[in-house]
Amino acid sequence: MIGHTLPLFFIPSPPWREWLLFGRLPIRAYALCIIAGVIIGTIVATRRWIARGGSRDAVETVALVSVPFGIVGARLYHVITDYQLYFGPGRTWYRAFFIWDGGLGIWGGVALGAFGGYLVARRRRIRFWALADALAPGVAIAQAVGRLGNWFNQELFGRPSTLPWALKIDPQYRPVGYEQYATFHPTFLYELIWDVAVAIAVIALDRRFRLGHGKAFMLYVMFYTAGRAWVESLRIDPAHHLGPFRLNDYVSGIVFLAALLCLLWLLRNKPGRELVVEGDRSVVGERPGSRAGETPPVPASDSFAALDQSEPSALDHPTTPEHDSGTAERAGGGPR
């Protein structure tokens, strides 16, 4: 029976969540985890972007804009979806600005962060979806590291549990109705492991199939939302419910379906990946006036024609003997 008695094995919670620098300046573990996640994620994304042919400083420039945008968006999402924590009788509205106390909504962060990245990409003549593909695993890694902040804050844990990896929560952080329980599901750890697995899976699939035009990013969104839906089913923190499910469950489902439809459309209409990911497209063969991300046909005599074509992917139609013979017939004026 789960109760006050601690199981033999459990994960302890940190005894502190902040330090005082010089005896007066608070340094909060939650903020340090977010910063560490951003740094590690940026390193991963930069390596991938350079491998795609981009410049070394592009991701750093994007991060300088998209990270603040993302933090603001994440906080807005949290405040809007959990407004009862900040507005109403007995509540202090200005605590909505106390971001160091925790409370970030991933979907607001991804949406506004992506918008900030788009603004930079447009200004620097970067193909946005190629950039998103490069960033996707780094974003997942940043989320994984950031989840450690929930551990320090003793927040967003799951149902009571006596599993060997159950998380001990101090009495003052246990929600109403669960005061008698000592250990809970460590949902921060579940999502941390899942986020790392998502990053590894996206990198592996990208290497195998040479994904482009946003396909790797869509896979990241699909994988993340699938795991997030399971984690949400374990959590017991206060949240808005629509019927039997939490609001975040519906958001995850909608985002998953949207990413799936986008991926299917991209596989059909945008095969391969971009060869040119950054710079003045008119210099590398893309005709002025063409829409970003598209590669209009060019004369065979154009010395840069090869750069205008998407690099073939293993997801494209494979070459078979029948395909080769059909190609030969078409070249010779045969049936089409």
Automatic annotation (TrEMBL):
Signal peptide: none annotated. Its EC number is 2.5.1.145. One of its GO terms (cellular component) is plasma membrane. GO terms for molecular function: phosphatidylglycerol-prolipoprotein diacylglyceryl transferase activity. It comes from Metallococcus carri. Its main location: membrane. This is Phosphatidylglycerol--prolipoprotein diacylglyceryl transferase. Keywords: Cell membrane, Glycosyltransferase, Membrane, Transferase, Transmembrane, Transmembrane helix. HAMAP family: Lgt (MF_01147). A 1,2-diacyl-sn-glycero-3-phospho-(1'-sn-glycerol) binds at R147.
